[in-house]
């Protein structure tokens, strides 16, 4: 306890009595969170701390405000504390502008003079104001610098004014804030929000600050959030009310909130937040990011939400992540800075020659010449001082050698290049309606110099459309051949757009159609409107309609294309699923599901795990994104086997084999054959009635359920038994079409797969999840705990209570490399037969996993575990303690998860196909021909990555693939040495080609003989090996080995490892790198590369927002680099060389004249002509050249990717081309000066008559030189608009 810190009384953590009934003790809304308020001053001591994970507190609580944030509510009781603490925290007013009216001029000038070129010219202006070294009129020297500064100042001022207007609109937005004096919510502005205020938000309103959710109009305590403004993800996120506050049947009362909130200091982690709420009775309730509403997000599907402000203004996570525009320096820009120093050296050398020449020439006079004016005291300047003054005079005279307009011209050229890049129709994707985005305007030329590309696999090389392909259950593999045949023609499935459009709006299958009056009479679950909140129909709970505006258009549901939703069941598995569904009905409380290795029980658990082990939100297509909930029934939802058999006899169903007579089996095969009391229809009617996907049907008629009404009846009459439901289903009730909105495509694929077998997810709330079985019975599982997926654990688990047996079951799914290590050891099983069977199942499953990986499928293992009541009670206690901990909360939560996720029983595994994007193999082949090395960095398993590498031509079947999988550093080093020695035997060590003034010289080392065939090699390593390489200082050997490999695959790599690899190659090999990805896990890799490219995929927009360029498809990379990259580099490089050439050529005219005027600093060209040389005479041609010139056509560049190597080798602009252009400029200046000099030699013309032809000849020569550099000419003069149209047409045709 810190005595110096401000002291605020607060309770210590004390957890509830665990002797309560389990349902009450473990519910997120359990009664132990309800407390009686005790007057704070009356608390003399605090109860003892019973939590081992939290340090005990005695007496009054003190908070260290430097280490944590303490938030007091702004109500009558805590008002004084709130006033004292809130002063330490900033308000909600935001300001993103750089300037104010008073600071604009000085600060903008200060920033502009950070550019040393401007500082250099300011120095020249000051020099010219000195009378002893004055060359031009003082006002003339200021003009060029003033024009440049003024233009940039106007641009900066306009940009900042736009930011000011945006800030004003944001700060003046309206929000309802609780007013303590009036004890009601008052409409105020965002800028009036303070930390500790209570905020009331309605549907479709934007969250004004980072707010802890305390109340939601949804009875389940759910608030739906759209985070597209933060991460670009359009699928809705669920935020939960803090535990203990969700079951509030009345509006939230701020005056009754008597708690103190302690949380972490502000940080920029969007997905990390931890803290606890301290109650008056000294108990603590932990919370995390699942209860935090972030600033900028939008409230959806929730009528009213109330919370307390935690972070405001610039301390919100959104503002802390707003680092401003990205700025990178291109390779050409770095080259320019070097060459400018060379130009300065040339300038200093010329000035020294002038100074020395002036002194020598004055020394030739025996007496002071008449033009040598003495000082006021009659003395003359010493020759040395006169030479120094002449040195400064020459700097002013030859200042044009440093091009002041070069930087401005480069910026204008890049803007023009970006304009044409954005308007290239070949880089537009019609399917996603997205074109290329140029987010970094100053590195376009780097696109033409890329040497290494680092690519993600999933969503970058592949579609990220996960399709359930095959599975293995208890060692038995189900190949789903019918599903494979369907996937062979995906284009035909996706091309049925017109037919799908006709059916997608149908709410119900055709055979359930009925008149509106009948529909209004039903009391089943009805779809919710956008402006209504998703709710459970609880008696006595009514709310008014939200005041939020209904949006006219709905964002599309992610991962819901027809190819992803439609799954054709396997014939063999279909029959076993029927038996498993019947077996489930036989379970009762008296007969618990004992751990069994039977196929029937395992299949049931397998599909139950696929259905409920996720965070999928269920809605209907008639009202998309509206959560569907079903009221739980108080009675068991099972039925007897005898009852089902009687129903079978009544229905007189045909055999299951007939159901496969059509393209694919429908859900009728399961639903009708398992007890649906409906009449069968012919195949045509089935196809028409089952076009929708969702809960009961698909657009291609693969499956359909006919018993949704049986689950709906449960809502209208709680006393109806399941037997009655099965016996007499009401055919008038129609089944809505379900939409599954998942946070990842893998989750959606597994739910759709379970749906194909009629294990249908129909409802999900924080407390329960409802599954409809094939026979129509709905099972509602109590959801006790959810352990979400993270990149460290690589798995997800849900803890549920089985509605029939009452057992507590843990369902887990995750990567096979993790799940296999968490399985129960067969040696610990006492039964030898069971031990042998377990080993056999593991061996077979691993064999199937390897098979799936070789086929390029993504694999997931499914497992379960039955937990006893006492064990789970003990675990839940520790879990709550970890959640309430502020220090090391993440580590404690990880530890508790590991305690639960062990000794698992393997159920099976799934293989999910992620199809290659169109054009990926051709793009990779072209990039490799262009000399670009392509590395794939992925988190997938090794076999999957290798298979994809073969599919996309990254690896050939004839390649020798070196795979390194080891954690030991010594072993890793020995393998690297062995691979290097073996490859060096086939590759003779060749020295790189030498260059002399840009020309290649043949290497002295003989090349490989034509008879010796050098094998191509590929390298495959995993994340553990990468750790060994980085920790064992083996980076040098690793990079040396990669030089002999045509491709490198890094599997099982983490986001941090991806960025480390990019930095290693970029810094050690000194090459230009490009990273491309589509997900949040690729952000670090994208930011580490010289150029980062994000793909607008299905995993949100985090990669796009962190990138320099954004494209819709990987195939667009081909034209972006080979065509636009080449053009941008070639244009800008040749323009820079020309700029340096023309300035040196022109300024040398003045230098040669000094030899004939006694090095006096005189000029033979008018001052204004010299000023206008850069500003007007030679400014426009380089701009047109840099924006529009095409040295090679797009067709040729695409047909011959080898031409891209010119940019990789910097052939257009390097040290040799710079000096060659300098020599050429000196030579041309000699010709331009001495031809007129020899012509007028001996004549009596004046100096300006002599200078005019020199200026004219030089200007003509410089412009003709520019004309020779141009490769594209238009014969007839055309307007600017026509020029743009022609250039755009060429780009689109190419």
Automatic annotation (TrEMBL):
It comes from the Eukaryota. Its EC number is 7.6.2.1. Pfam families: Cation_ATPase (PF13246), PhoLip_ATPase_C (PF16212), PhoLip_ATPase_N (PF16209). It is an enzyme of class 7 (translocase). The active site is at 456 (4-aspartylphosphate intermediate). Residues 1104-1276 form the P-type ATPase C-terminal domain. GO terms for cellular component: endoplasmic reticulum membrane; phospholipid-translocating ATPase complex; plasma membrane. Its cofactor is Mg(2+). It is a multi-pass membrane protein. Residues 546-562 have a biased composition (Polar residues). The chain crosses the membrane at residues 113-130, 136-154, 336-361, 388-410, 1136-1155, 1167-1188. Keywords: ATP-binding, Endoplasmic reticulum, Lipid transport, Magnesium, Membrane, Metal-binding, Nucleotide-binding, Translocase, Transmembrane, Transmembrane helix, Transport. It catalyses: a beta-D-glucosyl-(1<->1')-N-acylsphing-4-enine(out) + ATP + H2O = a beta-D-glucosyl-(1<->1')-N-acylsphing-4-enine(in) + ADP + phosphate + H(+); ATP + H2O + phospholipidSide 1 = ADP + phosphate + phospholipidSide 2. The keyword Transcription regulation does not apply. It is found in: Endoplasmic reticulum membrane; Membrane. The keyword ATP-binding applies. InterPro entries: ATPase_P-typ_cyto_dom_N, ATPase_P-typ_P_site, ATPase_P-typ_TM_dom_sf, ATPase_P-typ_transduc_dom_A_sf, HAD-like_sf, HAD_sf, P-type_ATPase_IV, P-type_ATPase_N. ATP binds at residues 456-458, 747, 789, 813, 858, 938-940, 1052, 1058, 1081-1082. Mg(2+) binds at residues 456, 458, 1078, 1082. GO terms for biological process: phospholipid translocation. One of its GO terms (molecular function) is ATP binding. Residues 516-564, 662-704 are annotated as: Disordered. Residues 84-142 form the P-type ATPase N-terminal domain. Belongs to the cation transport ATPase (P-type) (TC 3.A.3) family. Type IV subfamily. This is Phospholipid-transporting ATPase. It comes from Aotus nancymaae (Ma's night monkey).
């Amino acid at each position: 306890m810190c005595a110096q810190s401000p002291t605020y009384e607060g309770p210590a953590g004390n957890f509830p009595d665990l002797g309560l009934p389990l349902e009450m003790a473990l519910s997120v809304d359990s009664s132990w969170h309800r407390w009686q308020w005790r007057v704070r001053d009356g608390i003399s001591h605090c109860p003892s701390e019973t939590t081992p994970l939290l340090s005990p507190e005695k007496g009054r609580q003190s908070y260290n405000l430097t280490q944590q944030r303490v938030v007091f509510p702004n109500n009558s009781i805590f008002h004084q504390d709130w006033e004292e603490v809130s002063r330490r925290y900033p308000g909600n007013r935001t300001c993103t502008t750089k300037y104010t009216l008073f600071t604009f001029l000085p600060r903008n000038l200060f920033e502009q003079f950070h550019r040393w070129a401007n500082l250099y010219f300011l120095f020249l202006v000051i020099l010219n104001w000195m009378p002893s070294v004055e060359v031009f009129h003082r006002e003339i020297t200021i003009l060029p610098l003033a024009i440049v500064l003024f233009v940039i100042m106007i641009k900066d001022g306009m940009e900042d004014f736009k930011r000011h207007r945006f800030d004003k609109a944001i700060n003046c937005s309206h929000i309802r804030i609780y007013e303590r004096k009036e004890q009601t919510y008052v409409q105020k502005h965002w800028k009036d929000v303070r930390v500790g205020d209570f905020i009331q938000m309605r549907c479709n309103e934007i969250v004004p600050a980072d707010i802890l959710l305390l109340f939601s109009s949804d009875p389940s305590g759910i608030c739906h959030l759209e985070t597209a403004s933060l991460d670009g993800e359009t699928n809705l996120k669920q935020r939960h009310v803090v535990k203990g506050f969700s079951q509030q049947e009345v509006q939230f009362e701020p005056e009754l909130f008597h708690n103190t909130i302690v949380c972490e200091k502000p940080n920029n982690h969007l997905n990390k937040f931890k803290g606890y709420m301290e109650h008056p009775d000294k108990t603590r309730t932990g919370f995390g990011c699942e209860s935090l509403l972030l600033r900028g997000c939008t409230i959806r599907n929730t009528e009213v939400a109330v919370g307390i402000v935690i972070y405001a203004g610039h301390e919100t996570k959104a503002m802390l992540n707003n680092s401003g525009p990205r700025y990178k320096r291109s390779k050409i820009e770095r080259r320019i800075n070097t060459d400018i120093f060379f130009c300065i050296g040339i300038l200093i050398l010329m000035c020294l020659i002038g100074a020395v020449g002036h002194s020598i020439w004055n020394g030739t006079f025996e007496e002071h010449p008449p033009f040598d004016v003495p000082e006021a005291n009659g003395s003359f300047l010493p020759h040395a001082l006169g030479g120094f003054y002449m040195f400064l005079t020459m700097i002013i005279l030859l200042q044009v050698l440093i091009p002041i307009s070069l930087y401005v011209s480069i910026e204008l050229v890049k803007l023009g290049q970006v304009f044409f890049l954005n308007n290239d129709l070949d880089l537009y994707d019609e399917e996603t309606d997205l074109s290329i985005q140029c987010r970094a305007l100053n590195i376009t030329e780097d696109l033409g110099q890329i040497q290494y590309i680092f690519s993600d696999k999933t969503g970058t090389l592949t579609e990220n459309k996960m399709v359930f392909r095959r599975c293995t259950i208890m060692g038995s593999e189900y190949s789903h051949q019918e599903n494979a045949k369907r996937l062979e023609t995906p284009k035909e499935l996706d091309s049925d757009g017109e037919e799908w459009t006709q059916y997608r709006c149908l709410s119900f299958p055709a055979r359930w159609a009925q008149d509106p009056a009948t529909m209004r009479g039903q009391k089943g679950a009805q779809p919710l409107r956008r402006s209504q909140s998703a709710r459970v129909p609880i008696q006595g709970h009514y709310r008014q309609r939200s005041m939020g505006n209904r949006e006219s258009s709905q964002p599309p549901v992610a991962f819901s294309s027809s190819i992803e939703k439609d799954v054709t069941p396997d014939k063999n598995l279909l029959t076993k699923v029927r038996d498993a569904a019947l077996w489930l009905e036989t379970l009762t409380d008296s007969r618990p599901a004992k751990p069994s290795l039977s196929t029937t029980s395992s299949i049931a658990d397998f599909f139950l795990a696929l259905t409920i082990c996720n965070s999928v939100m269920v809605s209907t297509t008639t009202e998309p994104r509206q959560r569907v909930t079903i009221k739980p029934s108080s009675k068991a939802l099972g039925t007897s086997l005898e009852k089902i058999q009687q129903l079978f006899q009544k229905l007189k169903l045909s055999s299951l084999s007939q159901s496969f007579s059509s393209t694919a089996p429908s859900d009728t095969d399961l639903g009708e054959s398992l007890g649906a009391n409906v009449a069968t229809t012919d195949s045509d009617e089935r196809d028409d009635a089952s076009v929708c996907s969702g809960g009961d049907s698909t657009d291609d008629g693969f499956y359909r359920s006919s018993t949704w009404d049986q689950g709906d009846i449960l809502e209208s009459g709680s006393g109806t038994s399941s037997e009655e439901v099965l016996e007499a289903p009401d055919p008038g009730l129609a089944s809505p079409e379900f939409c599954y909105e998942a946070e990842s495509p893998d989750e959606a694929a597994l739910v759709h797969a379970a749906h194909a077998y009629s294990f249908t997810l129909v409802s999900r709330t924080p407390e329960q999840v409802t599954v409809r079985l094939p026979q129509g019975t709905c099972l509602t599982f109590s959801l006790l705990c959810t352990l979400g997926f993270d990149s460290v654990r690589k798995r997800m688990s849900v803890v549920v209570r089985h509605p029939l047996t009452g057992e507590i079951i843990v369902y887990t799914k995750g990567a096979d490399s993790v799940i296999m290590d968490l399985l129960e050891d067969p040696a610990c099983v006492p039964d030898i037969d069971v031990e042998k069977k377990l080993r056999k199942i593991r061996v077979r499953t691993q064999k199937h996993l390897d098979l799936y990986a070789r086929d390029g499928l993504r694999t997931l293992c499914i497992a379960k575990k039955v937990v006893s009541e006492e064990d789970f009670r003990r675990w839940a206690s520790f879990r709550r303690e970890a959640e309430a901990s502020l220090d090391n909360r993440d580590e404690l939560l990880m530890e508790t998860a590991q305690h639960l996720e062990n000794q698992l029983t393997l159920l099976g595994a799934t293989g999910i196909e992620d199809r290659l994007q169109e054009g990926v193999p051709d793009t990779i082949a072209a990039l490799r021909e262009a000399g670009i090395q392509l590395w794939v960095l992925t988190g997938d398993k090794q076999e999957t990555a290798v298979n994809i590498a073969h599919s996309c031509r990254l690896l050939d079947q004839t390649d020798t693939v070196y795979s390194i999988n080891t954690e030991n550093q010594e072993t890793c080093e020995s393998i690297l040495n062995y691979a290097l020695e073996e490859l060096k035997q086939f590759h003779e060590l060749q020295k790189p080609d030498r260059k002399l003034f840009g020309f290649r010289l043949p290497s002295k080392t003989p090349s490989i003989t034509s008879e010796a065939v050098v094998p191509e090699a590929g390298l495959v390593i995993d994340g553990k090996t990468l750790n060994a390489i980085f920790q064992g200082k083996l980076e040098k050997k690793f990079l040396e080995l990669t030089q002999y490999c045509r491709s490198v695959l890094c599997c099982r790599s983490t986001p941090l490892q991806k960025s480390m690899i990019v930095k290693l190659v970029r810094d050690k090999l000194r090459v230009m790198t490009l990273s491309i990805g589509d997900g949040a896990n690729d952000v670090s890799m994208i930011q580490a590369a010289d150029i980062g490219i994000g793909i607008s995929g299905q995993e949100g927009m985090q990669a796009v927002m962190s990138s320099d360029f954004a494209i819709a498809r990987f195939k667009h990379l081909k034209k972006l680099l080979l065509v636009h990259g080449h053009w941008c580099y070639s244009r800008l490089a040749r323009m820079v060389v020309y700029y340096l050439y023309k300035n040196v050529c022109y300024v040398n005219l003045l230098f040669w004249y000094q030899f004939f005027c006694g090095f006096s600093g005189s000029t033979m060209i008018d001052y204004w002509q010299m000023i206008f040389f850069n500003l007007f005479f030679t400014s426009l041609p380089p701009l047109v050249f840099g924006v529009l010139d095409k040295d090679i056509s797009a067709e040729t560049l695409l047909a011959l990717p080898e031409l891209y190597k010119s940019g990789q080798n910097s052939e257009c602009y390097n040290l040799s081309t710079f000096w060659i252009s300098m020599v050429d400029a000196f030579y041309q200046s000699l010709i331009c000066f001495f031809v007129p000099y020899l012509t007028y030699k001996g004549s009596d013309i004046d100096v300006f008559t002599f200078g005019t032809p020199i200026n004219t000849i030089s200007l003509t020569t410089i412009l003709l030189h520019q004309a020779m550099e141009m490769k594209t000419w238009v014969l007839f003069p055309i307007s600017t608009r026509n020029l743009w149209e022609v250039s755009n047409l060429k780009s689109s045709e190419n």
